[in-house]
Each structure stands twice: as C-alpha cells, then as structure tokens.
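Hypothesis: this fold can be encoded by more than one sequence.
Test: take the structure tokens below, design a sequence, compare later.
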C-alpha cells in the first residue's frame, strides 16, 4: 500500500516537473523572440543611432524661443492693439474658443456614435453571446481593419469626399473609436458572470433578454469608463485632424504653422492643453464615481 502511494506521488512529481520544464521552455522561447523583435525594432527605428544631426536639443531650444511671445510687463494688460500685451498675443481669442468648442463637439459626437457602434460589434464577436463562429470572425477582422487605418489617412480620404469641415473628422473619429472600443467591449462581454446568463437560460429568456438583463447590468460601468477615456483621446485626435482640414481648432493650428506664426502656435497649444486638462478632470471624476458604483454593486 505504501509502495503504491509512493509510486503515485513520484508519478505526480514527475509530471509536475515535466510540466514546469515545458512552461519554462515556452517562456524562455517567448522571451527570446520578444527580445529579438525589440532589438530589431530599436535598430530599424534608429533609436540609439547617433546620426540625428548636431545638437538636436539646441534646435528644440531655438524653436521654443521662436514660440515665446515678446510680452512686456508695463503693457501686459493693455488692449489688443498694444504690442507686448496678453491681448495682442491672444488676438483672436473668441475665434479660437469657438474653434475649441467645435473640437469638443466633434469629440463628443464621435465618441457617442463610435461607442454605440462598438457595443453592437462587441455583441456580435463575443464568444459567449454569438454562437456562429463565421460572424465572430468577420466582425473581429472588420474591427482590426478599422484600427489599422491611420486616422490622418482616413481623414484625408473623407476630406476629399466631403470637403473641409468637421464632418470628415467626426466620421474618422467614430470609425476609429468603434474599432478600438469594439475589441475592449467584446473582451468585457466575455468576462461576465455566466451564472446570470445560465439562470436566464433556465427561465427561457431569449438572446435579447439575456443581453438586456444578464450582460448590460454587469458591463455598463466598464463601458462608460472606457468610453470616457476614449473621449479624452478623441479631443486630442479632433484637434490633430483639423490640421488636414477636418474642422475644429486644428484648422487654426494649421494656419499658424503655415504662416510661421510661432507665438500664435504656442497660444493655441496653451488653450488646447487647458481644454484637455478640464475635460480630463471631469471625465476622471465621472469614471471614479462609476468604478465606486460598480464596486459597491458587487
């Protein structure tokens, strides 16, 4: 009896050591491949290359000096017509604020449309909700395509199709948001508690009722949190897309770059940073509240 027990233990230990060796071997091979890819990436990107011209920090410093306005203390708060005043630096503040508001509107509309599209796509490619593998495959590949296309390239195509204005920017950001959030939402859907879905199954609920009563109550806080996080990214994205004619404050930024008005460029950048700072504070507060509600509900 004792000999039989020892044999079982020895057999178990042998299999455990074999499994551990296999695991270490797989981890080592994976780490080796990742290191090789990382090294090749450093090499190809010339990250450590010294062939970047002389004194790059000096050139950055020169550019920053060009961006700095010639403000003068005695006339700092004088009118717009007085050189050296703040008003003369922010000479078109009402117009810039209107463009920033348009950028915020673009980001909000794009986030809402993109998030709604992402929710629909995530339901179609979650393995626990969509039983047909070909549908999951097609939706996942479609989301990958939308994530692969650079926003600037897509915006240029849409500007050519719809003309200069905010519409191409909204469509671009909506597609980009759907591609990014669709993958995240699908992974969230697949991690819901299956016991609730099984209970609804046992009660004879259909697929739509399972999603409404079994999935959405569990995933909504995470959906909202990621949606707000994406809104912050879309604000910066909307500003950048304006450079290619997709509306918003980016158009003013592009004009300042074209006419080498470096101090105007800095003034607009300060307004954009303030805008993103305020939106980030608000969305962070909302996200934390949603997370606390989610934890309190568990």
């Amino acid at each position: 009896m004792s000999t039989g027990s020892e044999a079982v233990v020895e057999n178990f230990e042998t299999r455990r050591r074999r499994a551990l060796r296999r695991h270490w071997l797989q981890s080592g091979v994976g780490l080796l491949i990742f290191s090789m890819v990382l090294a090749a990436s450093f090499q190809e990107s010339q990250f450590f290359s010294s062939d970047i011209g002389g004194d790059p920090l000096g050139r950055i410093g020169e550019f920053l000096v060009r961006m700095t306005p010639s403000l003068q203390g005695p006339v700092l708060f004088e009118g717009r017509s007085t050189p050296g005043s703040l008003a003369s630096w922010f000479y078109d503040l009402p117009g810039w604020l209107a463009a920033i508001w348009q950028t915020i509107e673009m980001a909000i509309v794009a986030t809402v449309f993109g998030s709604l599209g992402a929710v629909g796509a995530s339901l179609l490619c979650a393995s626990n909700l969509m039983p047909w593998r070909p549908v999951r495959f097609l939706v996942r590949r479609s989301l990958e395509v939308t994530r692969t296309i650079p926003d600037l390239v897509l915006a240029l195509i849409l500007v050519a199709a719809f003309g200069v204005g905010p519409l191409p920017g909204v469509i671009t950001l909506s597609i980009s948001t759907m591609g990014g959030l669709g993958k995240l939402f699908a992974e969230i859907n697949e991690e819901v508690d299956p016991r609730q879905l099984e209970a609804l199954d046992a009660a004879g609920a259909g697929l739509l009722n399972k999603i409404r009563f079994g999935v959405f109550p569990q995933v909504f806080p995470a959906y909202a949190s990621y949606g707000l996080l994406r809104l912050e990214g879309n604000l910066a994205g909307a500003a950048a897309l304006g450079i290619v004619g997709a509306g918003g404050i980016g158009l003013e930024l592009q004009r300042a770059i074209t006419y080498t008005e470096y101090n105007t460029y800095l003034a607009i950048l300060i307004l954009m940073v303030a805008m993103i700072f305020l939106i980030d504070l608000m969305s962070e507060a909302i996200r934390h509240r949603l997370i606390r509600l989610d934890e309190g509900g568990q």
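The two ends are 49 Å apart (CA to CA). The mean pLDDT is 85.
Hypothesis status: open.
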